[in-house]
Amino acid sequence: MGWTKVAGESLANGLTKHEQIIRYIKALEIRTKVSVRQIAKELAVSEGTAYRAIKEAEGQGLVCSIPKVGTIRIEQKEERQIEQLTLQEIAKIVEGEFLTGQDLAGTAPLSFVIGSYKPATLRQFLGRGSLLMVGDRLELQALAVEMGAHLLITAVFDVSEEIIREAERKGVAVISSPYDSFEAVSMLNRAADHCFTDKALLQVSDIMVRDVRSLPMEATVADWHRLAAESHFSRFPVVDQNGAVVGIVTAVDVAGKDPQASILSVMTKNVLMVEPRMLVSHLSRLLVWEGFELVPIVERRKLVGVVSRQDIIKAFQQTQKQPHVGETIDNLVMSGFKLEDLPEKQRLKEAETLKATRAFRTMLSKGAEGTESGESADGIMLSGEITRFMINEDGTASPGILTTIVSTAAYIAARKQYRLDTVVDNLSLQHLQPLAVGDVIEVRARIIHLGKKFCLADVSIFGAKDQLLKAKAVVSARIVKR
Hints:
- By secondary structure, the protein is of the alpha+beta class.
- It has four domains: about 5-75, Winged helix-like DNA-binding domain superfamily/Winged helix DNA-binding domain (Arc Repressor Mutant, subunit A), CATH 1.10.10.10; about 85-200, 3-Layer(aba) Sandwich (Udp-n-acetylmuramoylalanyl-d-glutamate--2,6- Diaminopimelate Ligase, Chain: A, domain 1), CATH 3.40.1390.20; about 205-325, CBS-domain, CATH 3.10.580; about 340-480, Hotdog Thioesterase (Thiol Ester Dehydrase, Chain A, Roll).
- The protein has helices at about 5-10, 15-25, 35-45, 45-60, 85-95, 120, 140-145, 160-170, 180-195, 205, 220-230, 250-255, 265, 280-290, 310-320, 330-335, 345-365, 400-420; strands at about 35, 65, 70-75, 95-100, 110-115, 130-135, 150-155, 175, 215, 235-240, 245-250, 295-300, 300-310, 340, 380-385, 420-430, 440-450, 455-465, 470-480.
- Strands 14-15-17-18-19-16 form a six-stranded antiparallel beta sheet. It has a five-stranded mixed beta sheet with strand order 4-8-7-6-5, with helices on both faces.
- A hairpin with a 5-residue loop joins strand 10 and strand 11.
- Residues about 1-15, about 80-85, about 320-325 and about 360-375 have low confidence and may be disordered.
């Protein structure tokens, strides 16, 4: 199906630009290359709209980004639940052999029991459909078969013919593994843990409040007081006639204001808005960096829910004991870092440096692309500790981890200085001095050049104790309009 034909059908059906792009991508043949520039040109949409739609398509499993190749249309896989370990999978993991019960290979054991108990005690744990992992203890093997439990016999190459015959009669499986019980259990534990990695990460859509109380643009401060009394809340999104978020109003905003004053005159206009598919762990750090208590959740700017700090705290409390709730590498790395106030001495020093840089640029060339007037000496500073999770085989911080820290710092600087959403386009990292486990570092970032579509960030990593420069980077990021 050609681009033009699909475009005509999409417009005829009244689809939004975002929906049109998703439909185009679905219509592409498998292995077709997808690019932001091509979609923007073919569909007459902005590159930002095309980029966001492609990212959503990637989340839906329609496309895949391959390094040095690009974004490719792929076959969408059906969602599946994490499968239990079947007897067949267990046999493969422990390099075992079915001695009987091959027809039960697709069966998953109801429970796993290690044969380290006396027979009387073992009866309390075993049942039909269980799997007993045991060595050469014949009395425990016989007990398992008697109770209808499957057997994983470890470190035993000769299994009693009597046990095999009884297992066939009882209709249970017997698997023999060359590994001892400890090794076999360890291998199964690793396999079970690996299964959990397929679980969906906790997204904002999983915890957001969908029944949202909001105020229209025409509302007054008196309307806020009435809604606060009814709902017992103090923070509300403000929406226009189309349901798009235009701001947030809180108790601080309306304090001491004329009851007849317009909500538009008192609300906070520059607010953080995120989409439902954002990870909760990432949003939690955005809240820390931005200082907001309530975040509107939007789809194409239309309000679909809200999330507060309390919602995130409750979600973390509920998922702490759930191993199926995953976490991304970026969030694991940045979880130990916090946003700090930049020291006044350092702020003044950066201001002087920036002033000298501007003068030097003016002498070299005039009329360069971008605007120097948008530059600001105000940067941000993150502080955190290098942990064992971050090191490589040499015992020092991995360059990949440093790249994550640097790119995150550049993103926060763009948000803090200019309220911009950015995507890293290029990063040049100079690793000057190795960082060891336990080193506390300060990551200072500021935007040094702002153009219409790109910005440039200067990021430096210092030792918190000696204040010596450990690493330095320059980050070029593309500005994305939400």
